[in-house]
Design goal:
Layout (H helix, E strand, L loop, with lengths): L7 H39 L5 H4 L2 E5 L11 H13 L4 E3 L7 E5 L2 E5 L5 H11 L8 E7 L4 E7 L5 E7 L4 H21 L3 E12 L2 E10 L5 E10 L4 E10 L5 E10 H10 L10 E10 L5 E8 L4 E8 L9
Length: 326
């Protein structure tokens, strides 16, 4: 039995069949990363990180593709994305910045095949802009293996105005946010500062229990909550304390309880010097369980009190702008 050696044309066809899906996947990832960049820049402008008037005129210094397959389309896609963000009238394309440079200065021939410097960008812009005002900022928007990389630099001071990496899922931003949160948490613990949480529980069926907790989060693992508790029902106009333990392994469920003193009963007992159960007993203990609803500020809450009432309802977590709590 003999085998024929595959021809060169067959080998090329096979290689193209392997490369084409990878190239298409990279193009899709880059296009999605550009979309995420547009959305993020719009939000940063709304947040006041920068403004168009502050940046314009803008010179596009680099739109370097990461792959040879991206070279025919990526520069155009990058400039189109920047035009949608900043407006086409505020952009200038520095083609000389993206090409090898050869110039004469002081009797010397200088060749630059590497990354163009900020001073070179200013020099090229001064020679090409004519009567137009000088560019204020330069933008480097290059393709990467995971998406795109963006830098906005003030050409007058070389100050970085904004820099970030974008990918289709914004995974790098999420990792950065997690690192920043971890750093802030370590600094908070070093200062001894506490984290305050407010919970408003509305248990409505079959029994009723309406209360509000004002708690501090503490402990080496930050899984403890304790503070002041107030109730409007079960008991009526009650005040006391509360404690909860958070269990991250079980969907961040919080299990704990409240001990509440009925103020009407306490007032009557103080006036009559007798032990009476006016509306509620003097002291009421309530078991409370809260299950957060995904990443929202709501939770499913269940309670059972020593007064024989139990039920389920909704809890509002971290309520702000309450009239009696700053």
């Amino acid at each position: 039995m003999s085998f024929r050696r595959p021809s060169n044309a067959a080998l090329v066809t096979f290689a193209c069949a392997l490369v084409a899906p990878a190239a298409l996947a990279q193009r899709s990832a880059t296009e999605q990363a550009l979309e995420r960049m547009e959305e993020s820049l719009a939000l940063r402008e709304q947040d006041g990180v920068f403004s168009r008037d502050q940046l314009a005129p803008i010179v596009v210094v680099s739109t370097e593709p990461a792959y040879e397959e991206s070279r025919p389309w990526y520069p155009t896609a990058a400039i189109a994305a920047l035009s949608r963000v900043f407006g086409a009238a505020s952009l200038r394309v520095c083609e000389a910045c993206m090409a090898p440079q050869l110039r004469v200065e002081g009797g010397q021939i200088i060749e630059n095949l590497g990354v163009v410097a900020v001073a070179d960008v200013v020099t090229i812009d001064d020679g090409a802009r004519g009567d137009a005002p000088p560019a204020k900022t330069g933008i480097w928007l290059n393709e990467t293996a995971r998406g795109v990389s963006l830098r906005i630099v003030d050409l007058r001071t070389s100050r970085v105005v904004y820099a970030d990496n974008f990918d289709p899922a914004l995974a790098e931003q999420r990792r950065t946010e997690l690192n920043v949160r971890a750093t802030r948490e370590l600094e908070r613990r070093a200062r001894g500062d506490s984290i305050t949480h407010v919970f408003v529980d509305a248990v409505v069926y079959p029994g009723q229990h309406l209360s509000m907790d004002y708690t501090d989060q503490w402990g080496d693992d930050n899984r403890n909550l304790s503070g002041v508790s107030m109730s409007l029902f079960d008991p009526l106009l009650g005040i006391g304390g509360c404690y909860y333990r958070i269990i991250p392994e079980a969907l961040n469920i919080a299990i704990g309880g409240q001990i509440l003193i009925s103020m009407p009963t306490a007032l009557v007992e103080q006036l009559t010097q007798q032990q009476v159960d006016l509306i509620d007993p003097l002291a009421t203990a309530a078991l409370v369980v809260r299950l957060p609803i995904f990443d929202t500020n709501y939770a499913i809450v269940g309670s059972a009190s020593t007064n024989g009432r139990f039920g389920i309802g909704i809890s509002l977590m971290n309520i702000s702008m309450l009239p009696v709590i700053p």
